[in-house]
Amino acid sequence: MAKQQEQVLAGVVDIAHGLSGIPRGRFNRTSLVEMPFLTRDAGAATHALWSLYGSGDLGDEYKGLKVLALHAHNGGLLHTNGKHVETMEDMKGLRIRTPSPPVSEMLTFLGATPQGLPPGEVYENLQRKVIDGTVFPWDPVKSFWLNEVLTDHLDMGAYTVSFFFVMNQAKYDGLPENVRKCIDEASGDALVPKFGDWWDTWDAAGREEAVAAGHTITELSDEERDRWREALKPMIAKYLETMKADGVEDADALYQKFRDKVAEFEAAKPEQ
Q1: Are residue 166 and residue 97 in the same domain, yes or no?
Q2: In a domain, 45, yes or no
Q3: C-alpha span between 42 and 238 (Å, rounded)
């Protein structure tokens, strides 16, 4: 998984879908969509990503790639094995698998110890109790059979993670015009708006499986959510400063653009 972008750029594979945060440092501008409590709505985060890619605000992070889509998942949960979590105090010292640098920082500020692992290695590490839990939306909990080795789920909705769906640009350019037309009609603006509803459907199956297994599912209380928001303000400030040092000089302004695009989507979304 960690080399998917590199493999596409090198022409080893023609098309790939993967996490933007693994390995770290490739998509620093994109990573700002993963700031805590930006949104718990996959549609909103996806809209923000695609809008800012289209406006050029993500810079040259996708140079050499034909970007078929960018998207993000619904607000992630904390899933644990034998550890019930409701508060920051409950997080202290827990070894939690993390998908990206921003989420690692978030977990650290909440008192946990982040552990970097590919999704496919989470089951074994939970089973062997090398880690106490993982952060994921519901869908991969089912896809990777994790409900077999989990007992508790905290619906915190504190973060989202971004994904890329890309094609080698030279390969795309070398295709016949009618084939390129088919790809264009099935990707980009035609594809991106579908991810919000898709994630809702995918996540529902994972949650239903956990309920059927008799697991404990806890919603982060409003009071505790406010505590987390306050505790994570320094983390956001620190991350933005780190991004500036890594070349994202307009990190503050870019983060605000992500916030504005999320608000734009959420304001236009019909109430359910």
Answers
A1: no
A2: yes
A3: 25
Domains: count for the chain: 2
- Determine, yes or no, domain membership for 242: no
Rounded CA-CA distance 225/241 in Å is 24
**Could you report the per-residue pLDDT of 201-232, keeping only the tens digit for each?**
999 999 999 999 999 999 999 999 999 999 99
Measured CA to CA, the distance from residue 234 to residue 106 in angstroms comes to 10
Domain that holds residue 135: 77-158+215-233
What is d(CA 65, CA 171) in angstroms, rounded to the nearest whole number?
A: 10
SS3 145: coil
What is the rounded distance in angstroms from the CA atom of residue 151 to the CA atom of residue 147? 7
pLDDT of 53-69, one tens digit each? 999 999 999 999 999 99
Structure tokens at 192: 């991106």
Q: Identify whether residues 91 and 148 lie together within a single domain.
A: yes
Q: Are residues 153 and 163 in the same domain?
A: no
Strands 95-98 and 113-116 come out as: parallel
Same domain, 96 and 169: no
Q: Is the peptide bond before 99 cis (omega within 30 degrees of 0)?
A: no
Separation between Cα atoms, residue 16 and residue 3, nearest integer Å: 10
Q: Name which of 65, 54, 69 is nearest 184 in CA terms.
A: 69
